[in-house]
Amino acid sequence: MIQTNNVVTLHTNRVYDDIITFIKKFESKHTRSNYERNIRNFFLWLPINKKIEHLNVDDIQVRNADIIRYQTYLKEHEADYANITINNYIAAIQSLYEFFEINEYPVNSKHTKVDSLSDDVEHAGALYLNEAEEMARLIMNDRKQGQEKSAFIRMAYTTSFRKSSLRALEWGDIKLNPNGNHYLVTTVGKGNKKHTMPISVDLYNELLKIKEKPYYKKYNDNKIFHLSPTTIQSMMKRLKDQMGILPERNVKFHSLRNVAAGFGTLEEAKKHLNHSSIATTQIYRSHATEDYSNSISLRLEEKIDDNIFKELTKDQLIQLILNQGYGTITQMKKEAQEMLISKSES
Description:
Blueprint: H1 2-24, H2 29-45, H3 64-75, H4 83-102, H5 129-139, H6 146-159, H7 163-168, E1 174-176, E2 183-188, E3 194-199, H8 201-211, H9 229-243, H10 254-257, H11 266-273, H12 278-289, H13 296-299, H14 314-322, H15 326-345
Antiparallel strand pairs: 1-2, 2-3
């Protein structure tokens, strides 16, 4: 009996030891850390729900259907993982099973093969500030949780917190700034990094109004928001339909987080979005500010007299300006303000 137990223990440790051997073959500490986390999460997700320290050979038997279900689970996760992130999670499992097979474990690494998800640097289409503001205004009229949904949208596009971080926010995460002119909201975001963003007194007051709603009294968890992922998804679909936002724009809730990408300097946007790399910010910024209307290929074909603006009435000219893209309007406002300042100083 003792001998049998020893064999089982050795058998169990062998799987764990080999997993660690596999992880340690990577030179980068960052890669080793990511692979270990991804592998641990996978085996905890499986029905066996085991830590890798306790795995035996029977536990590592998987079917292709298991990997497909895991990929689907990640796609539907409330953390709103990018496709490239999901591909990386799956790649760690695939690489491990190739290692298992080479080392003569009774597994078939082909069972872990699934189609990679498309590279989705644009997985959430661009949304502009005026559209985000309109969403917050429209949803306020929703008969169920309108105040909460409106404040949730405003928090999304002003703080750029992820959906999962917003849903996890508690009232204690908001503190009055010492100077008293705004509040500071702190959350733990992607990669377990703390992220603090200021919000206006007006927005904080909108959050407080949620507490006044009769339904809110049933909650005692100190959380600010109680919107399920399904509710949020349904809300976005209804708003896109109402506003006539075309499907090909691929606007999602995550698009609200990226509204801020087009504002400030690149470094300011990086800090606001809590990106580790400025290259990531550059990608989102380019999508947020992309405007083909002034492309060279179009300008080469234009043969319109510059004096055409003089033929418009004041109201027509104003309407023409307001019909431009948000970035163009913002720039024109700034220049108009500078012109008025110069006029008053002269």
